[in-house]
Amino acid sequence: MAKGDECFFCKVIAGEQGCRKLYEDEAVLSILDREQMTSDGGEFIPGRCLVLPKKHVSQLYDLEDEECGKLFVIAKLMAAKINQVFNPDFVTMFFPCQHTSHIHIVLQPSVENDPVDKVFKDMRLITYFKLAPEELLDDMARRIRET
Ligand SMILES: [Zn+2]
């Protein structure tokens, strides 16, 4: 998806798409997500919100340092507000870059045994994560450090 008319978040920022604004400044917007997570029993786990840069970029590394800093400062602020208002066990932060071309942080309040908690617990049980060989880890670390 390209910048412009096709980007949902650019429409939100431009005021062409309705939203429930929670915070706004010159560089960052935070909105309440219309889709709120539910527990197995169907009750809402309230407070899921999105924090996005007003600049249309598709990857975190496309932001300037200052823009990135502002984004995370506001994510911290909004996570603290969610924690204060809804008192979840924790507030998880996602960066779902694969679902949209306009990056955004998802702040998801979570409680023990809700779907988020189960995903992270299940991830430890399934085979997506394995202890990597020392040689492979050394090579990865070296390549990242030297870039
Ligand atoms: Zn956009």
Can you give a write-up of this model?
- The chain has 147 residues and is of the alpha+beta class.
- The protein has a single domain, classed as 2-Layer Sandwich (HIT family, subunit A), CATH 3.30.428.
- Helix content is 36%, strand content 18%.
- The protein contains four helices and five strands; from the N terminus they run H-E-E-E-H-E-E-H-H.
- The chain has helices at 8-14, 65-86, 115-125, 134-146; strands at residues 20-24, 28-32, 49-53, 90-94, 105-110.
- A five-stranded antiparallel β-sheet has the order 1-2-3-5-4, with helices on both faces.
- A hairpin with a 3-residue loop joins strand 1 and strand 2.
- It is globular and about 50 Å long.
- It starts with 7 loop residues before the first helix and ends with a helix.
- Bound molecules: zinc ion.
- The site of zinc ion has 6 residues, from helix 1.
